[in-house]
Structure formats: structure tokens, C-alpha cells
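Late entry, written up from scratch paper. The run itself happened at the end of the previous shift, but nothing got recorded in the book at the time, so transcribing now.
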Amino acid sequence: MAKRRGSKKSEPDLPDLSQYGRLAEYNRKRNFNITPEPSGQMGAGKSRGPLQFVVQKHRATRLHYDFRLEHRGAMLSWAVPKGPSPDPAVKRLAMETEPHPMDYNQFEGVIPEGEYGGGTVMIWDKGVWAPATPHGLGDEDEVDRQLKKGDLKFVLLGEKLAGSWVLVRTRGSRQWLLIKHRDQYVSEADLTITRPLSVVSGRTMADIARAAGASPRQLEKAAAEDPVVPPAPAQPETGRRTAPRKRAPSARPDRPAVRAKASRARAKNVKTSA
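Output as recorded:
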């Protein structure tokens, strides 16, 4: 059968990314000749020991916090617009995104403008995690079961976040809520304000953007996401009275005293000459 005129041209073949498995979408979205992000393979960057987690503050089109949990050689990822809250009364929206390579846990810098996720990235928190069960900590099979159910309970041990948490799926397959459970790590503090610096470099978003050669627009956006540090509180009164300071002697001479001294000297000279 002849091809119809005006039919849509065939689209170019997409590269075969099956070798990347769960990281295929991550690799498809990025041009690693331009972006400094790692082009990771499954399990790359894995060290022996507990499962890792990382939270990266990311000023892309909008500010959000990328919450990532290690699972089967990759980092499961959720974008949390307002950042994790240690207050159980505060439920944070968490949108599931594509899994990232474990190498990404060390990425702090700037994604160039025009690239996917372009903007400044800070390692805001990091540590280890484990799935939780009524009988203690679980394994990666337990993670699979809870993810399928849409109710992932876990514990964190990070530099800013700790204790018991849960991710609850609410709509479709991508929308979740990140909620803190009640335990000794509960706090009403907004950690995104009270602890804003990178846990690996101690830098602000503006510092990271400037060091990575961000564009003026990216630097301005990064700096706008750094909380204003409040002034140091005034020192409290001790109740002790301090003696008034003695005034330093004036550098200018006392003119009347100089004139009187000069007059006495003239009178003495007159008597001597007489």
C-alpha cells in the first residue's frame, strides 16, 4: 500500500538505554557532555554497610528538596517542595521522580541553564536508613513489599533528620506524603531555616553557585533561597555596675593655662633684668 502524502515523518530512533535498567530514564533526560552530573551505572558508588539516604536542596525552576533512599543499587527519589519537616502535624507533599545513581549522593554544584533540572544543588543532609516493621528493621525485600502497598515506613539517622518516618502514596503512582512519626526526634523547628547549610561543605546556596561558575541569573536565584540569618541576641544584663571610664586627656592644650604660664615667665624675666 502506497504511503499517504503528508504522513507524519518517522521520528529518529531513541538510543537503547536498556543497559541502564532502572536508571534509563535518568540517563535519557541528561546530556553528560554538558551537565556535571554523574552518568551512573547501577550500584556505582555503593560501599558496604547500611543503606544510604541523601536530601539535596535544588533550586531548579522552583525550589524543592530531593529526598533519596538507596534501594537495589539506585537511589529512589521524591521531590519535596517545602522540604522534610520533623513535626508530625506537618505533612509534606512528595512527588516521586526517576531513580538516580548512587554517585549522585556526592553531587553538589550547578546544572547549567537549559539542561534538565538546571540550577544549584546542595547536599542538605545525608546519612543511613532502614525500612521499619512492627518487629524491628527490615531488608530490601521488605522495601519492595511496602512500596507496592504504598506505605513505606523507615528510620533515618542523618545529620539533620533522624527517627521514624513514613511515605504514604495518596494518588496515582507518583504522589506521596512524607510524614514524621512521633518519637524523641520530633521538633516544631523548620530545619530548612534553622539549619540551611550544606552538611559536606558548610556552604550556602550562593557560595555553591558562585564556586561552580553559575550564570548571574542562577546565582541570583540561589542567593534568594538562603535564609536571612537573624542578628545575634544582645548580651543579657548581669546586674553589676561598672565604673565609668576615665576620659582620655585631650590632645588639645588648655589655652588659658598656657597663657597664665607665659605671663608668669614674662614677669620673672622682668624682675631678673631689673
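Helices lie at 24-28, 140-149, 191-194, 205-211, 216-224, 255-273.
(Scratch paper discarded after transcription.)
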